[in-house]
Every structure is written in structure tokens, then in C-alpha cells.
Amino acid sequence: MKRVAAGLFSLLTLSNCARAPLGYLEGAGPAARSIASLGWGLLGISVAVCLITGALLAFSIFRRRLQTEGLDGGDDRSALRWIGVGLSITTVLLLASAVWTLWTVRGLSDTSRAAAVTIDVTGQQWWWEVRYQSDTSSREFSTADELVIPAGVPVQLNLRSRDVVHSFWVPKLAGKMDMIPGQTNRIRIEADRPGVYRGQCSEFCGMQHAQMAFFVVALAPADFQAWWNHQLEPASNDPNATPQRFFVERCSGCHAIRGLSTGGILGPNLSHFGSRRTIAAGVLPNDPSNLARWLGDSQGVKPGSKMPELHLAANEVDLLTTYLEGLK
Amino acid sequence: MAIEIAQGLPGNERRKLLDIWETAPGLYGWLATVDHKKIGVRYLCTAFFFLIIGGVEALTMRIQLAQPGLKLLSPEAYNQLFSMHGVTMIFLYALPMLSGFSNYLWPLLLGSRDMAFPRLNALSYWVYLFAGIFLYISFPLGQAPDGGWFNYVPNTELQYDPGINIDIYSLGLIFLGISTVVGSANFVVTLLRCRAPGMSVNRLPILVWGTLTASVANLLAVPAVSLACFLLWMDRRYYTHFYVISGGGQPLLWQHLFWIFGHPWVYALVLPGMGIVSDALPVFCRRPLVGYTLVAISTVSTMILGFGVWVHHMFATGLPIVALSFFSAASFVIAIPSAIAVFSWIATIWTGRPQFKTPFLFFAGFVLLFVIGGVSGFMTASVALDWQLTDTYFIVAHLHYVLLGINVFPVVGGIHFWFPKITGRMMDERLGKWTFWTMFVGFNLAFFPMHLIGLMGMPRRVYTYSAELGVGGHNLLISFGAFLFAAGILLLLINIIRSRTVGAIAGSNPWDAPTLEWSVSSPPPPYNFAVIPVVASRHPLWEDRLDETADRSTIHHGLVLDDGKETVGITVLDAEPDVILKMPGDSLLPLLAALGMTVIFSGMLLINYLIVAAGAVWTGLVLLVWLAPRDHASAERPAVYG
């Protein structure tokens, strides 16, 4: 009983909320942190208002009164004073909150610090295309479902959509921004320290909206440069190897891999796939058995996904699994 | 012609009125009635039925969400369920339920014998019923709307949603909009012309203020969503591109059109509910409402401000910061009128002497839920914080505290309060109190933890979630609370069904309430008032005891008007008797017109022009007969009033 009560209590605490992977009452970057302070502030006001009004309500119901029959009279001054006092306090609180909000917004829209990297993120049903921009076009490249960023500096994101409305959200780093077809929305994210932050699509976007997650991985700036350089290397370049031939035959209509001569853009770019955390935008942890499951039954794992059932033989699944997991 | 001053109307006069006003017996009468009380009860029953359907949908979803990764429902089934749950509760339950109360109560509250346009009233009900069926017709086929009640484009364009799901949604909402607009126009005109003499604007019950405000808002807001839906249907079936980028369209246009309707609509769903509390809570505090004038003003100003806050649903769409700041500030300001209402209710309880009857419990519980729903709304008004809160379960918590707290609790309290008037019998008190506590505890167990999982980042509109989010325990608790809440609704249903036959006989005024509806028998006679009352204060039945002024309302003698189906039309502002209005009798025209419209919309759904044309001709003919001039010479005469 005690343990149930303790469990229940821990469910209901706010610090528990702040620590959750998508909890935003604790920010890991300047933008999320300033919103978190505002959040705690408004939450405090809200809780206080509920408690005080609730107490007034309870006291007004249960207070002792003279028991008389008949009716009480019309409006008297003391009754109206309730509204006067309540209204004044409310107005002051609302005004203060509005000023605090606008102050926070002003801080969030400050772009005086130059962004270290610009990344184009394009939402589509139901995954994220990520393209790193550079002044030299040979240093640009694409990846999917994972954003690697340098820690401690602002990163500029250009958010677009290829099909329906999505919303880009990494609660530990910043608020949401919608990805709307036909327009580019810009947002800045910044992580204080290296770490992994979970992201999630937060605008209903069709059948698999629930399973459209991603990760932001913040690296120390030097590690980030090394990672970028590694991304530019060909991931696979042995045209005679059977696995690669099989991939080109069966998968490259939709998927590209750096180093291969052919590749499509309908599905995620799979260069260095073996180093990614998850399969199918956060549905499964990336390991060989899960990948085999996904290749063998994409519609069972993520119903409605644009990845068709491939009807592969068991040995073909093994072949592809080994090949893809080897792309580190 | 018998305009006479009757002192305590004799039985034969009442008989005569009954003959004039009573609905014909049998099937014909059932289909042709224009009695606002019968229509009101139909609204209440139909809306309650949709509440149960929407509730079952919610419970099914709560089973699926009770733990991470459950596979009871396919994603497609879940998306249809949550869409239909929203559409059902918002469009087919919440407003029609309030329309039911207002339909039943308005003429009784206002001292009139019927609504201004009784046949239009019947039409609005039939269209509501048929539009509800229309929206559900594809549900058994697994082709129900699946784009959410907000139905954002381009996810609902043909390219991404090729079935008939969204055509059902867009045509269904346009169809239902006809009912809403017709009903709203009727309320507005009824208020302007069909009050009892002396019922000046400062004597209107707050429920009337609430419904009036909501009705005016509906007249302005519903066309926006009808237009949005029509454009979407054109996009889907005639390849226009109002929302399609490749043709120069703009997806955000949908969001603006939808929310410029959607936000005022939310207030339309709560203001009459707040009105129910403002009128009925004081009865159980044995005193008039504190700050009547302020509450009436706050009702109207909430609605006016409500038209200037729609962008707070679109804070994350990348609109310019200056625009967002304006809408954020406006969204804070709209809390001020709500604060007036809250402190007025608390002051009413404080300075009164509460009687712990079931309706009081619902109204007092409502005040607390209103405050919780209010402060979570205040948090989402902050544009910066909303960038985190929006589209999480925090919003789900907020909107349910608002829509259940401010709509369902007052409605259920109102059912307990007016049940004796409607049926002539009291509802069971003991069962009523059980109902309240089951609903109240269940409600808070189901919806309070949603604030927390929202703060933990659980996104809304998801058919499943990852165990990594750490919200499995909360969701189990929520699902349990949802079932407890449903058990409360079941108790209510049992109480209603039992009390209809075995409840204690109520008498005309069981709660010793002050307003006009309690001056007539329970249930009221078809003609409502044997004589047209003349109102002298806000509390006609409490005048002698409150003794605020020397004036007294006259309820038991006055105009009889038994020379045909007649009621008094008054001047708009001063409520002076102006004309005698000839009211229409039973008529099948409203049903026939609604059937014709159903044919039109079915034809549009099937893209079959023959059916559309047949329905249009049919509806046109019915309307011609409806509007055919009758002998108006005797229809309206100047009222000679003694």
C-alpha cells in the first residue's frame, strides 16, 4: 500500500515531469531554459490561483452562518467588493504575465549571435530529411531522422514540408515550429552541453503521426567537425560486392547511399545508417534483429508507412541487414 | 376576439387554449409538432445520445492508450475514433445540448408562448438530426472522417486522404451549419420580439444572455467554417486549389478560416453553460446573483474578445512575432470577464445560504473546474510558453476542463434542476449525489494527470506512445478515471429513466426558484402561460420577499389571447406590447424541407447531379409552400392592452 502511494505520489510530482525525456520544465539550452522559467512562473501563478480560489470556494460553502429561513437581499456593497478585489488581482497578474511573456519572446527572437551551422529539415510522412548547408557545395550532405549539432553555439534550422503540415519539436532545446508546405519557417536551437535530445512531430500528420520521432545529438565542436568530415566520405563503394549490388537492385529506387552511383530521394538517405540510433523515425532501436524485422515486415512494424512490403527471402534480409548495419 | 383581463383563468378558458396549442396526437403530431418544449426535449435526448456515442469512442481510445505500445486499434481506426470523438462532442453534443435547454426554456423564461419561428425551430432540429446521421453514415464502413475535428489541410486533401472520409466531414459540417444558423437566428429574433411585456434587457436571466451572445456569435462564425469546408470539398472533387500549394493555394487559409470560427464557437459552447449556473446556483444560495449587471456585461465582452484570439491556435505556424504578441495579449485579456463571473459565483455562495441539493453540488464543482480550466488556458495564452504546451496532452487536459467542466457539469446540474419542470417529477437525490461524486472524482482522475503528461511532453493525437516517455503509469490512471466518469454518466441515465416514472411529484416550483418558468405547472401546458405575464423585476416569484421595489409582476391575470394561436410581440428595447403574433400550427414542412436537404447533401457526396437536382426541386417546392402568403390581414393586430 505504501509503495503504491509512493508510486502515485512520484507520478504526480512536477520534478518528475521536468526530468522526462520530452519534459520542457527543464531546458538544456538557452531558448528552452527561458521558456522553462516562464513556464514555472505561470505554473506557480496558476497553482496559487487554483488553491486560493478553491479555498475561498470551500470556505464560502462550509462557513458557519446564521440559520434563517427566507431569502437574502439583493446586491450589497460587501458582496460586490468580492468582484472588485478579485478583478483587480486578476488584472495585475495578467498584465505581469503578458509583460513577462513578451519579454521572453523578445529574448527568443534575438539573433545577434551568428549561427554556427545551418541545417534544412524537411518533414514528410513519416520521417525527417536533414540536409547540412555549407558555403562549398562539396561539403553539403543529407541524412535522416537524426540531427547532429555542435554544442554551445546556435544552430539555424530551415523547416519545410514535402507533403502535409508537420511540427518540429525538441522540447529540451526549443519550442515547436510547424513545417508547412510552401513556406520556410526558421528556428534556432542550441544545446549547452553534448548530449542526446529526443524530438517528436507535434502536428497531426496522418496515419503514423504517433511514430515520427527523431533525435538531436549535440557533440563538442571538435567532435562535430570530425563527424561532418566522416559524413562526407563514401559509405559504400565496392560495386562488385553482392550486398551492394542487391541494394542497388532492390532499394536504390527510393534510397541513396553516398558512394553509390544511383539512388532515389523518396526514402531516407541511408549513408552511414549503421551509426543511427533508431529505425523508421524512432520506432525501433537500431540493431540487426530489429532491422531484419523492419525489412521483413515494414507494414506490420509501422502500418501505413511508405516503405512497401519487400517480400524478401530470409537470406536476402540477412544480406541487407549485414550490409546496412555495416555502414557506420 | 377575446382580449380580456382574466383573474385566475377558468377551466373552460384553459380548455380552449389547450385545443388551440396542443400538438395533434399520433404519428402525425409526432412528426409535425412545432412546440418548443417537445423540440427542446428532442434536442436534449438526441444530444445525450451523441454524448454516449462520443463517450464510448473515448473509452475505446482510453483502452488503447492505457499502456505504451498496445495494439487494440489500428492507427487508422484510432484516427477515425479521435476525429469522430471530437466532431461528435463539439458539434453533435455540446451546442445541441445547450440549444435543447434554451429551446425548452427560452419562451418559459421570457414569458412567451413559443419561439418567434416555431417551424424554423422544428427545421433546425430535423437538420441537426439528419446532419448527425449523415456524419455517422460512413462510420460502420470504416470510412469516417479521420483528419481530426480541426481537419488541417493538406493532410485532408484528396492526395493524402482519397476515401470519402473527408467529404463526409466537409459536407456534414456545412449541413449541420444550416441547423446552427437557423436556430441562432430564431433565438435572436425570439429575444428581440417575444419577451413578456416588461421583460426589459436588465431583467433577462443570464442563461438568456449566454444563449443570445452565443447565437449572435454563431451567426458570424459558422459561415467561416461552412466556407472553409466548401472550398475543401471543391479542392477534393473539382480540383480547385484553394489550399493546394502547387496551384498557388495556401494551407494556412484553412487554419485561419477554421479558427476564426473555432474559437468563438468554444465560447458559444460555454457561455450558455455559465448562464445555467448564474441562474440556478443562486436558487440554492437563497439569494439573487451578486453583480448581475457585471456578469451580463462579462458574458457579452467574453464573446466580443473571443473574436480576437483565434491566432492563439496558430502560435507555432511561423506568423510574424508582432502579430503573435497581439493575439497573446488579447488571450490574456479574455480572462478578465471570466474572473468577474467566478468571483460573482463565489460571492453569491459566500453571502447566501447554500442548500446541498444535487444541482448545487454540480454548480459548485463546476466553479472549481472552471478555475482550473481557466488557469491552464491562461498558461497557453502566453505565446512563448505555448510553443511548448501546444499539441501536448496539456491542451487535452485544458480543453476537457473547459468543455466538460463548463459544459457537461452545468448541463448535468441543469438536468437535475429542470427535470421536475420537464417531467413533473423530481430526480432521486441520493442517486444524484452519487452521480455527482462519481463524475467529479472520475473526471479529475481522468483529466488532471493529463496536465502532467502534457508537461512531460506526451504529444496529443497519437494512437500509441513510447515507453521511454515515462507516462505509462499516468495513462493507466487516466483510463481508470475515464471509466469512472462514464459510470457517473450511467448513474445519471439510470436516475433519469427511473425518476421519470417513480420520482416524487414535483409541483410547479419545487426549488422555490424566482424565474417565470416556475410559475407554470410541471410539466408546463402546451400554451405555457394561460395569460401573458407582465414582468416588473428580475425575480418575478421572489418579489414579495425581496421587496426591492414597489412594482410587482402580474402572472395570474392579463392577456389571454385565445382567439387562435397567438402570442404577444413587444418593442425591442422597452418590452412594451406591440403586436399580437399569429403563430403557425403543426406542420410537416420542416421535416420535408430537412429531408430534401438531406437528399441534396447525399447527392453532393455521391457527386450525382440527378440526386442533387431532385433534392433541390423538392426543397424548393417545400419552401414555396412554406412561404406562400397566408391571410395576413388577421395575423398581426395592434395589441390593445389594458
Query: Number of helix segments of chain A?
Result: 9
Measured on Cα atoms, how large is the radius of gyration of chain B? 25 Å
Largest sheet of chain B: 3 strands, antiparallel
User: How many structural domains can be distinguished in the coordinates of chain B?
Assistant: 1
The CATH superfamily of the largest domain in chain A appears as Cupredoxins -  blue copper proteins
The overall pLDDT of chain A, averaged over residues, is 92
Short description:
The complex is a heterodimer of chains A (328) and B (642). By secondary structure, chain A is an alpha+beta fold. Chain A has 9 helices and 12 strands.
Secondary structure layout:
The complex is a heterodimer of chains A (328) and B (642).
Chain A: H1 2-11, H2 14-19, H3 30-62, H4 77-108, E1 117-124, E2 127-132, E3 141-144, E4 146-150, E5 155-161, E6 166-168, E7 177-179, E8 185-189, E9 195-200, E10 213-219, H5 221-232, H6 242-250, E11 278-279, E12 284-285, H7 288-296, H8 298-301, H9 314-325
Parallel strand pairs in A: 1-5, 4-10
Antiparallel strand pairs in A: 1-2, 2-3, 5-8, 6-7, 9-10, 11-12
Chain B: H1 11-21, H2 26-32, H3 36-65, H4 75-110, H5 118-136, H6 165-193, H7 206-238, H8 251-280, H9 292-306, H10 321-333, H11 335-351, H12 358-381, H13 383-389, H14 393-423, H15 429-455, H16 472-502, E1 532-534, H17 543-546, E2 554-559, E3 566-570, E4 577-582, H18 589-606, H19 609-627, E5 637-638
Antiparallel strand pairs in B: 1-2, 3-4, 4-5
Helix pairs in contact in B: 3-4, 3-5, 3-16, 4-5, 4-6, 4-8, 4-14, 5-6, 5-18, 6-7, 6-18, 7-8, 7-9, 8-9, 8-14, 9-11, 11-12, 12-14, 12-15, 14-15, 15-16, 18-19
Question: Keyphrases for this structure?
Answer:
heterodimer, A: 328 residues, alpha+beta, Immunoglobulin-like, 3 domains, five-stranded mixed beta sheet, three-stranded mixed beta sheet, 9 helices, 39% helix, B: 642 residues, mainly alpha, Cytochrome C Oxidase, Chain A, three-stranded antiparallel beta sheet, two-stranded antiparallel sheet, 19 helices, 5 strands, disordered N terminus
